[in-house]
Design goal:
This protein is of the alpha+beta class. It has helices at residues 2-52, 59-80, 82-85, 103-108, 114-125, 127-148, 150-153, 166-169, 176-192, 194-213, 215-257, 259-279, 281-309, 312-317, 319-329, 346-367, 404-412; strands spanning 334-337, 372-378, 382-389, 416-420, 427-434. The chain has two domains: 1-213, no CATH class; 317-435, Heat Shock Protein 90, CATH 3.30.565. It has 17 helices and five strands.
């Protein structure tokens, strides 16, 4: 029962949509023809009168009034195109007079607006596509209706030697059944092609109107969108450069303050041990043992630095395993909520790991928190990372603070970051990275 009822429920819905589309397109064409006639007369008369009488200044107000009238017809046409195009066209930004402009300047502003002149051109020439669409629409509707209903009114056509039917003129004979079959075939042809033909005619008229009434505005929006994308790309590039510079400075500082100092001390200890071997072997052994300890500590610090750059566990086992290991090394208890997810792009995983690692480092250094909650979840649009602690708050994204470099890193990856850190109320860091 289910398989037989589904097509029955679907077919009427499709038929209703097709009939609605046919009715909308037909109404658009039928209304467009008389509207085009009215617009043609008003715009033509107003334009030529305004141009002709402009020498005595009488035509200037008439020309301005004609342009404003064309604007009104253009606004009406944009509203009429909504059901045909399936979307509302953006209203163009007409030129406005300066706030300190005089009354004459305000009145003459439409004459210097390009879109207003395009509206006038549409009002003067829209009659051409409207007439073509109207003529073909009438032919197709009459052909379909007259052909399919021909058996009902065939009897009313007078026939005689001087009044031959179309099949007889074509040499097909004058028999009743021949006439019926011929006209019914024409009716089925027009009816079968009615929907695509009417749709094409409506799109012809709407396309002409869209090109003049919204084409320039859409082109401006595309240019603005391209410029915005370019600015975003430049901002991401600058943020990437800033983030890498910050990371390099931090790495240089960490190496200078940690492994480099230990290596200097290691060299001094080994030099002292070399001198002690001949005079005090026991002291030399103790110095060498201390140097070995320094070597192990230096290796541990170098491993820690390498984990901050690109930990092997992240490359081998993925983001969840790397975050679990990172939470286990944290000096503050971490409540990690990171369900298993499929492997992501390597750059995205590195950025996500860096965000959590940097956030935990800042929590450990500055927050005086007792616990930190980390959530990493994959959404439909990207990767959502949240790091929240119960510390003293007061964190900032301003330059010179610890999170400024993190903000650059996130922006370079095309993500966004927000920070809530009221004084005494803990800190919540939220990062969204696009997939």
């Amino acid at each position: 029962m289910t398989t037989t009822s589904a097509p029955a429920e679907y077919a009427p819905g499709l038929a209703q949509r097709l009939l609605r589309r046919l009715g909308q397109d037909t109404l658009y064409i039928l209304v467009g023809f008389p509207l085009g006639l009215v617009t043609l007369v008003l715009c033509m008369v107003g334009f030529f009168f305004g141009i002709g009488a402009a020498i005595i200044w009488v035509g200037v107000p008439a020309l301005v009034g004609t342009i404003m009238l064309a604007r009104g017809f253009a606004t009406l046409e944009r509203a009429r195109m909504v059901p045909i195009l399936g979307r509302r066209l953006p209203h163009p930004a007409y030129k406005r007079a300066a706030p300190d402009a005089s009354i004459a300047g305000r009145a003459l502003t439409p004459l210097s607006d390009g879109q207003s002149w395009l509206d006038l051109v549409h009002g003067m020439f829209r009659f051409i596509p409207s007439t073509i669409s109207f003529a073909f629409a009438i032919v197709w509707w009459v052909g379909a209706l007259a052909g399919l209903t021909f058996p009902l009114w065939d009897w009313s056509i007078p026939r005689g030697p001087d009044n031959q039917d179309l099949p007889e003129l074509l040499g097909l004979g004058s028999h009743y059944s021949t006439r019926i079959a011929f006209h019914m075939a024409l009716g089925f042809f027009f009816a079968g092609t009615l929907l695509p033909v009417i749709r094409g005619l409506a799109m012809l008229e709407a396309g002409f109107a869209r090109g003049l009434l919204s084409g320039v505005n859409e082109l401006r929006e595309q240019v603005a969108s391209a410029e915005a994308a370019r600015d975003t790309a430049q901002a991401q590039k600058a943020a990437a450069v800033s983030a890498e510079a910050t990371a390099l400075r931090r790495l240089e500082r960490d190496i200078h303050d940690g492994p480099q100092q230990r290596l200097v001390r290691l060299a001094m200890d080994l030099g002292r041990a070399q001198q002690q071997f001949s005079t005090d072997p026991e002291a030399a052994k103790a110095t060498v043992a201390e140097a070995l300890t320094q070597t192990r500590e230096t290796l541990d610090e170098l491993r820690a630095l390498s984990r901050g750059i690109a930990p092997p566990i992240l490359v081998d086992r993925g983001l969840q395993a790397a975050l679990t290991a990172l939470a286990g090394r944290s000096t503050i208890p971490v409540d990690l909520d990171a369900p298993p997810i499929a492997r992501l792009d390597a750059a995205l995983e590195t950025t996500a790991y860096f965000v959590v690692a940097e956030a935990l480092t800042n929590v450990a250094k500055h927050s005086y928190a007792g616990e930190v909650q980390v959530s990493v979840r994959r959404a439909s649009t990207g990767l959502l990372i949240t790091v929240a602690d119960d510390g003293v708050g007061g964190a900032s994204l301003a330059k010179g603070h610890g999170l400024a470099g993190l903000s650059d890193r996130v922006e370079a990856a095309g993500g966004v970051m927000s920070l809530e850190s009221p004084a005494g109320g803990g800190t919540t860091l939220t990062v969204a990275l696009p997939l």
